Batch of 2 targets.
Target 1
Amino acid sequence: MPGRPIVVSGPSGTGKSTLLKRLFKEYPNKFGFSVSNTTRKPRPGEKDGVDYNFVTVDQFKSLIEEGAFIEWAQFSGNYYGTTVAAVKKVADGLKRTCILDIDMQGVKSVKKTDLNARFLFVAPPSLDELRKRLEGRGTETDDSVKQRLAAAKREMDFAETGAHDKIVVNDDLEKAYKELKKFIFAETV
Ligand SMILES: Nc1ncnc2c1ncn2[C@@H]1O[C@H](COP(=O)(O)OP(=O)(O)OP(=O)(O)O)[C@@H](O)[C@H]1O
């Protein structure tokens, strides 16, 4: 049986994608991400309900009014968002445990739903090491490193309030991956 949804959060650059990629590779059929809703037009080959739930702007706005979203945002003229229903569908339809990779606002929002999720925070060994990883990844400008470090401080303050069920410090990758698996498999067997 699929387990409760698992929310993975933590500062940008802390290693969430690295850890999750490894988990999905090791267990290709056990976990899934929810399908996002978007108002952008499908690109060739994209399937409705698989790549995205393609909706109109009016439909999207109604969903916002209904409080259907865990999080939503607007990028370059299009709306994107994750609904509670899409998360439920991963367990009910796909029979997989849904993993959500979201930020602090998303965590707060999931806590207000009936998803009964479990919360894992991936912390960097230090803010100095986080800066090195963000710079080392080669995907960020100086400005975006600064912004991410400021956001990281807010995320870490939030984690100190005890909002998560488990905090994994991603210092040694092997050790962090073992701890992550231990948390995840504690309830998804
Ligand atoms: N334990 C580790 N030790 C050293 N480097 C690491 C470790 N884990 C991840 N990294 C490196 O740190 C960088 C950031 O990792 P990653 O992209 O997985 O972060 P993220 O938390 O998913 O970030 P974002 O939220 O921006 O997607 C990558 O270059 C990755 O290879």
Target 2
Amino acid sequence: MPNDAFASQIVTDLFAASRQANEATRAAVADSLPSAAARILACCERGHKMLACGNGGSAGDAQHFASELVNRFERNRRALAAISLVTESSTLTAIANDAGYDRVFSRQIEALGQTGDVLLAISTSGHSPNVVTAIDAAHERGLSVIALTGRDGGRMAEQLNGDDIELRAASDVTARIQEMHLLIIHCICRLIEDAIAAED
Ligand SMILES: O=C(CO)[C@@H](O)[C@H](O)[C@H](O)[C@H](O)COP(=O)(O)O
Ligand SMILES: [Zn+2]
């Protein structure tokens, strides 16, 4: 562990870097974030569902997002349909073992995805093969995609079509991008819950 002064400087630097990423990302996603929230609410209100995927920290984000739709974020309201594709261990291990890790999300999309559903695809690099393959599977099955990316958007940004929405964190650092992705997810949840409250 660094000495006290050094540790304190690291903490100061990380908070400063996060603030900088926060402000740059706000400017980058301010216009498209409400559209993403509206897309998700419309999806659920029409009887469709959200699917969410990502690796590592982004797997945590996918679960976090699904939990906040199914259960609640800050308000009590009707349940919204969302499934995390990162949590079924028997399914994940079987697909990875039999077909390869690149197929762990796409195979589940083939099984569960229906036209009108929306895939939340999360990757800080934009290059994770299983997320790239998931987007292809989503397009093949008539799902639109909301992509949480960073850096230059990677391969994911090139895959997206005009019906998809990319929310790109303005940073080149994985940890900062993840921090921004969680903030984006919370903004989406807040916008959705405010829209439902205004309807009721
Ligand atoms: O949380 C972290 C790093 O902060 C890691 O677990 C990270 O999520 C993993 O290395 C992922 O495999 C990275 O995947 P991706 O964001 O490039 O799609
Ligand atoms: Zn992390």
